[in-house]
Amino acid sequence: MDWGAFNLSLQLACYTVLLLVPAAILTARWMVSLPARRKAIIEALLTIPLILPPTVMGFFLLVSMSDAHALGKLWRWLFDDSLVFSFEGLLLASVIVNIPFAIQPALRAFEGIGNDIREAAATCGMSRWRSFRSIELPLAWPGILTGAVLSFAHTLGEFGVVLMVGGNIPGETRTISIAIYDQVQSFDNASAALMAGILLAISVLAISITFLLARNPFARIKA
Amino acid sequence: MPAPNGIAVSIRLQNPVTLDVDFEASGSELVALVGPSGGGKSTILRMIAGFEKPDSGEITVGGQQWFDSRQKLWLQPQKRRVGMVFQSYALFPHLSALENVLTALADRQADDKIRLANEYLARVNLAGLGARRPDQMSGGQRQRVAVARALAREPDVLLLDEPFSAVDKVTRVRLQRELVELRTNLSIPIILVTHDIEEAARLADRIAVLHEGRILQMAAHEKLSISPVNTAVARLVGIRNIFNSKIAKIDRQHARLDLQWGNTLLETSYRDGFEPNQTITWCIPSDGIVVHRRNRPSRGEHENPVFGVVNEVFHFGQTTELTLRVDDPDAHPLHCSLPTHVAERNEICVGADLGVSIKADMIHIMGSADP
Q1: Residue B66 burial by Cβ neighbours in a 10 Å radius (0-12, 13-18, 19+)
Q2: CATH superfamily of A3-214
Q3: According to the CATH classification, is domain B7-235 in 3.40.50.300?
Q4: In a mutagenesis test of the A interface, which of B52, B66, B92, B98 is the best target, namely the one with the most A β-carbons within 10 Å?
Q5: CA atoms within 13 Å, Cβ hemisphere of A8
Q6: pLDDT of A130-167, one tens digit each?
Q7: Which of A182, B163, B170, B219 has the greatest number of C-beta atoms within 10 Å?
Q8: Strand, coil or helix: what is B181?
Q9: Are A160 and A58 in contact (CB under 8 A)?
């Protein structure tokens, strides 16, 4: 059992959720107010990570993070370090790969709040911020939480992108999925089974939570 | 200028619908906006509330300008003292009834808020139900919460968008009574949007008939149903007898104007502005047609008598509606309605001969017929 890899995966998943969810909330809320066509285009763009094969996605990320390209250059200039094969690079890749998992449920949740609810908040004298905080956010919360749980679980399981961008450096970029692959390669099936079991348990838990939350207790009351 | 606590609306819009509307309502008046869907009723409400902006015009409420295109003045919805009851009620589903009302009381003193919110709930007969969430309430109760929340805003105008359309008939009548009762303590204009002319007739002081973005006529219901300005208004208030006729004779001395309706000469009371031989459109409400007794003659039968054969009979509970095919190839069928017991006593059935009188003073000439 590679606890180092398990620990690293948990950290990666937590940081991914922490960075991604606030951005997803703001982006999803912004998208709801867009005209239908522009919203569809942006939604399509943000769904690309879900469609592309992880290795392809990982390849693009690897190239753009390398010192030869803008992102890698910027990182080098800021921190005097390489972005590829580092935990930070892995985190960045993880955030990008998980965008659709976080945004889609949040977007559906904000879309589910009728325009009349927003307008009612305005006629009650609520500022946009107050309306967002005390009306929209509580109503969209199940969707936002679903996105967070999905991103968390997906980060733990990601293999292709991690391998492409992070490689396999113990303590830096070796995640639990890669550790499992390593152990199978070295015929240590017992350790692989244990870690696979843990991942399975986490996945089952995550999907249960998601389905529980999907039953929105404040389902919109139809007139 | 409108009355100090009234509302004056003057708005023009080109897209996506055309609107060209001017009206005022005083501080205790209930005005109903009625008309077919797509006529712009809801858009007008949304513009008063500030959700949509007209191309040009002015909206003044309670002595304060909310919109003035010449001064480029546009008040955000949050800044307008407007109470709105949405068709869907738009209650906040995660908040209790009390909390829903509290949201409209945010700018009050903190220690006063709960007491006030409870008072508003009591005013709409929901005392003691403040802890319930909307999904734990009936349709009628939800509508009351929406009204309480709208009133809690201390609005300068109350906007009601089809507020009775989502409840059953018994509840609707009860809610309508409650609105009439609430009004006695309100001194703000109320604008009611409805597609139901009977609802408007029951509740409104004046009805504005909207058609394709214009107000065709704005008057009390009695006025609309006796003297509609045109065919569209006449149809909306339920008048089915609308005909084109030539003016046969004008006799100013005896205050008479005769219409040639097929072979029948109809006597009406005189009015200005018409010429002999002019083709005009006229209408008669169904209570302007008196059905003759079939067995024995009675008084009043010599007033514009028309004879024919009953073509269709429909019993709608206590009212019976029938169409009469008039003995005249050029005349159109007449629609009449009478109490069912009268229809039965007179043995009115399809194929029966029947005479009716068209009351001269209820014949309403709407103007020149469209060519």
Answers
A1: buried
A2: MetI-like (1.10.3720.10)
A3: yes
A4: B92
A5: 25
A6: 999 999 999 999 899 999 999 999 998 888 898 888 88
A7: B163
A8: helix
A9: yes
HEC string of chain A equals: CCHHHHHHHHHHHHHHHHHHHHHHHHHHHHHHCCCHHHHHHHHHHHHHHHHCCHHHHHHHHHHHHCCCCHHHHHHHHHHCCCCCCCHHHHHHHHHHHHHHHHHHHHHHHHHHCCHHHHHHHHHCCCCHHHHHHHHHHHHHHHHHHHHHHHHHHHHHHCCHHHHHHHCCCCCCCCCHHHHHHHHHHCCCHHHHHHHHHHHHHHHHHHHHHHHHHHCCCCCCCCC
B chain contacts of residue A220, beta-carbon cutoff 8 Å = 93
- Beta-carbon contacts of residue B176 (< 8 Å; ≥ 6 apart): B164, B199, B202, B203
Any idea what the Cα angle at residue B102 is, between residues B100 and B104, rounded to 5°? Answer: 90
Nearest CA in chain B to A121: B103
**What average pLDDT does the segment B315-323 reach?**
91
Q: Are B363 and B288 in contact (CB under 8 A)?
A: yes
The number of residues in chain A equals 223
Which residues on A lie below 8 Å from B134 (Cβ)?
Answer: 221
The strand order across the sheet containing B364-368 reads B264-269, B256-261, B241-251, B279-284, B364-368
Q: Give CA torsion, residues B136, B140, B142, B145, to 10 deg.
A: -130
Say whether residue A219 is in contact with chain B using an 8 A CB cutoff.
yes
Closest partner residue to B103 (CB to CB) among A114, A124, A220 is A124
DSSP state of B191: E
CATH 3.40.50.300 domain locations along chain B? 7-235
Please indicate if any CB of chain A lies within 8 Å of the CB of B142.
yes
The two three-digit tokens of residue A107, written as one number: 């977007």
Look-up: residue for tokens 């819009």? B13
Per-residue pLDDT reduced to its tens digit, A47-79: 999 999 999 999 999 999 988 888 888 888 888
Residue B99 confidence (pLDDT) = 94
User: What CA–CA distance (Å, rounded) separates A104 from A210?
Assistant: 13
Q: Which tokens sit at A4?
A: 């180092």
CATH pick for B241-368 out of 2.40.50.100, 1.10.760.10, 3.40.50.720, 2.60.40.1120 = 2.40.50.100
Q: Which two tokens stand for residue B54?
A: 């007209």
Note the pLDDT of residue A60: 92
Rounded Cα gap, residues A147 and A98, in angstroms: 9
Task: Find where tokens 């031989």 sit.
Answer: B277
